[in-house]
Amino acid sequence: MAGGLVVFIALVLFIVAHEAGHYFAAKATGMKVTEFFLGFGPRIWSFKRGETEYGIKPIPFGAYVKVIGMSSIDEVDPEDEDRTYRSKPFWAKSLVVLSGVAANFVIAYLIFFGLALTQGEPVLVDGQLVETTTVGAVVLEDADGLPTTAFQLGLEPSDTIIAVDGAPTPEWDDLVAALESRAGETIDVTIQREDQELVLSGELGTRIVDGEERGFLGISPAPLTEQLSVGEATVDAGSQFVEAVRFSFVSFGRLLRFDSLGQLFGGIFGGQVDDDVRPVSLVGVVQIGSQADEVGFATVALILAIINVVLGIINGLPLFPLDGGHFAVALYEKLSGRTADVRKLIPVAVVVIAFISLFGLAAIILDIVQPIDL
Fold first, then answer.
1. How many CA atoms lie within 13 Å of 109's alpha carbon, on the beta-carbon side?
2. What are the backbone angles phi and psi of residue 209, rounded to the nearest 5°?
3. pLDDT, mean over the chain
4. Is 170 helix (H, G, I), strand (E, B) or coil?
5. Residue 321: enclosing H or E segment and its boundaries?
6. Are 160 and 192 in contact (CB under 8 A)?
7. Phi-psi map region of 30: left, alpha, beta (phi>0 left; psi -120 to 50 alpha)
8. CA dist., res. 352 & res. 359, Å (int)
9. CB within 8 Å of 151: residues ≥ 6 apart
10. Neighbour-count burial of 1, counting CB atoms closer than 10 A to its CB (0-12 exposed, 13-18 middle, 19+ buried)
11. Which of 12, 160, 307, 328 is deepest in the core (most CB within 10 A)?
12. pLDDT score for 198
């Protein structure tokens, strides 16, 4: 539950950071900002400081910053005309509309950097991860839906198993060998948790492998890692960011296939949807956060970084009224020397908003009827 709350707060901060990018860029380029709200709909609470009203609205689907004169048809007090978005040069318009995307990308990079610096880089031998006896994740249920031994013993990610029944388990293979022949037996598991050494006792679970019963504890191993310097972490974070961008575009392409769309909207009416073709709503992300104790906060932080990349990419698409759409309009005006008639873009805006809303609704329904289980 605590993890879910942390993730919810993080998402709110990401949204605020995105809009703060627009806000500060607009202020820096001399534009007038009249509103900065979290949420949409009627005002719940607000206050005014200077020329800007700040507040909260009840529909939690984002936030917005209102800059005056975003188009040629907006009515503006004549004395404020020189502080409108439309009166500014192309570089200023670009800075304002793309600063939100930049904020999400910077946040993603900083998370990747923090993970690289604190978690290190996995060690590979012959292209394979070196597995350790440190718990990477805890499996909650076995194949029969019963709680695993690891869950019952209270094992947590980052615990290191140092012995089974007093016999040392320095390597992952040692741990597997100590457990596989003990199915159904009571065992003592010695762990190192931070600066404490604990002994946990319980009955070892069972699973069938190649027709034979084998002991099943219910954990996955954390890989062996090597510490990175600040410089190495900087480069590694960049690589992770590029990979996250590639992964996001591949996922978008997979999601927009006809068979994936059919599966997705079939899921609204009770059909099963594969994890790799389903969008995730705020509800789903909070569900992921609530599993932090099982999968580890590093995994949740990685997911949050990818979410920022996805938010940045979506907002950067050249579709009106997204940030990228505003940039496309500004670019058109710069190259053509003509003022764009945004009224002609209203149908496009309606389609884009409807499409995003439909996906958002599908994601919420799926996250409720088919909760995400990492």
1. 12
2. -125, 120
3. 90
4. coil
5. none
6. yes
7. left
8. 11
9. 138, 139, 140, 141, 218
10. exposed
11. 307
12. 94
Percent of the chain with pLDDT over 70: 98
Question: What are φ and ψ of residue 228, in 5° steps?
Answer: -110, 145
pLDDT band at 293 (very low <50, low <70, confident <90, very high): low
d(Cα 311, Cα 11) in Å, to the nearest integer? 11
* Full strand arrangement of the beta sheet holding 59-67: 45-49, 52-56, 33-40, 59-67
**How does DSSP classify residue 61?**
E
Question: What 8-state DSSP symbol labels residue 227?
Answer: -
Q: pLDDT tens-digit profile of 34-52?
A: 999 999 899 999 999 999 9
Query: How much of the chain, in percent, has pLDDT values that exceed 90?
Result: 63
pLDDT at 257: 85
Could you read off the pLDDT of 228-283 as tens digits, one per residue? Answer: 999 999 999 999 999 999 999 998 888 888 888 888 777 777 777 777 777 787 78
DSSP state of 2: H
> CA 139 to CA 241: how far, in whole Å?
29
Q: Where are the beta strands (DSSP E) in the chain?
A: 33-40, 45-49, 52-56, 59-67, 121-122, 124-125, 128-129, 131-138, 160-164, 167-168, 186-193, 196-203, 205-209, 212-216, 219-223, 225-226
- DSSP letters for 84-152: SSTTS-HHHHHHHHHHHHHHHHHHHHHHHHHHHHHH-EE-EETTEE-EEEEEEEE--B-TTSPBPHHHH
CA atoms in the 13 A half-sphere facing the CB of 309: 25
56: left (phi over 0), alpha (psi -120 to 50) or beta: beta
Is a pLDDT exceeding 60 seen at residue 1?
A: no
Q: Could you give all domains of the chain from N- to C-terminal order, each with its CATH number? A: 94-120+229-374 (no CATH), 128-226 (2.30.42.10)
d(CA 41, CA 58): 6
Please list, residue by residue across 166-190, b when 16 or more beta carbons sit within 10 angstroms of its beta carbon and e when fewer do. eeebeebebbbebbbebbeeebebb
Instruction: Using DSSP bridges, classify how beta strands 33-40 and 52-56 pair: parallel, antiparallel or unpaired.
Output: parallel
